[in-house]
Amino acid sequence: MATPTQRAPPPCARPSYHQSQFSQKAPASSAAEIILIDNPWFFAAALPAVFINGVSKGGFGSGLGIVSVPLMALTVPVTEAAAIMLPILCVMDLAALWAYRRSWDRENMKIMLPAGLAGLVLGALTFRYIDEAGLKLVLGTVAVGFVLYHWSGAARRLTKTQPSKVKGYFWCCVSGYTSTVAHAGGPPMSVYLLPQRMDKALLAGTAVVFFAVLNYVKLVPYFWLGLFDARNLSTAAALAPIGVFGILAGVWVRKRISEALFYRLCYGFLLLTGGKLLYDSVTRLI
Buried b vs exposed e over 17-53: b needs ≥16 C-beta within 10 Å? Predict the structure, then answer.
């Protein structure tokens, strides 16, 4: 276990998913001093990562937001990236909730929230023992497989689905779990919601409300796990305005595209993020 005074490893270092939880602590400083990560490559990755997450959350049901932590993790450990991203997500959620305050599905939410919170608790209890590569492999396989199935002839013959307790409890529990350990709850939630072919605003708003509740509840286990320190929180505060701008951009884009194009983009983003997860898992396993 690393000591609290150790400095962050260089960008080329790739610590395990749970090691960095104890190894990344900010140096001691006065209460008035603002401490930011001093690696310029981190901000080169974090600025587009946060903006993309905002656009995705604001317009496309959070699907592409899954790339944020992997992008940041190119320069910092995964758990540090997750700890920085969570306060940013909470700020973005406020803007997104206002934008979609009248557009979310209450029937689905009665299924999704209890399942998501159950997955969140499970994720918090097992956080220290997660194998990152294995988790990404499973998520990537589910996401890519779901999109390929949707594009197959069999999927086209299926009728529009309705909210389902069995499917909703399973996929949203998985979503709550993966959201807790890697802010990667988008693909499992999409597997449940996309086949319902909801109105695009209703789909985006339902995803916004679901993840907003999860993100604010996640603050508790993240504090409990010791993932927040002065440097992580200061860095998150500096990046948060970029996320809010991304939310506004996502809402603007969503209002100006057709329903058919919206769903093609959602499935396309899900395929891209699933492919990225598979690539990450395979490169870490071989």
Answer: bbbbbbbbbbeeeeeeeebbbeeeebbebbeebbbbb
